[in-house]
Design brief:
This protein is an alpha+beta fold. Helices cover 45% and strands 24% of the residues. The N and C termini lie far apart (38 Å).
Amino acid sequence: MTETTINIDFFEFAFLVEACIPPTPIARSTFWIDVVNKHYHILKQSERNHLYEWISSTIKFKDSMRDKNDLANLFKCRYNPDNQYMVHTVYDGKYDDILAFMYETRMCTVKDRFIQPEFIISIDKVKL
């Protein structure tokens, strides 16, 4: 099976994201996770900021955050420009710098992947 590319503009994408604000059925939840794990890296920084402001201002998102929905919080942590970090690490003698965001108590790169604390040398806040 080959992967198909579907092109939509930013506003169509943002409306789709808004329609999938948690809580939602599994198919929409899966898309929401893709917004965090995949689409974040595709968007330009200005689009990320705009999407964060747009979604964060909706009543449904505010209700979801009030209800402590984990997936809503995940989006907030991933897209919040004030929650972006450069994590300096060393593993097996190799140094690396990894862009990450704080989610719960961990420095994450995607929903279920985080940087092991014992490999972190230092953390710098990224200004966007």
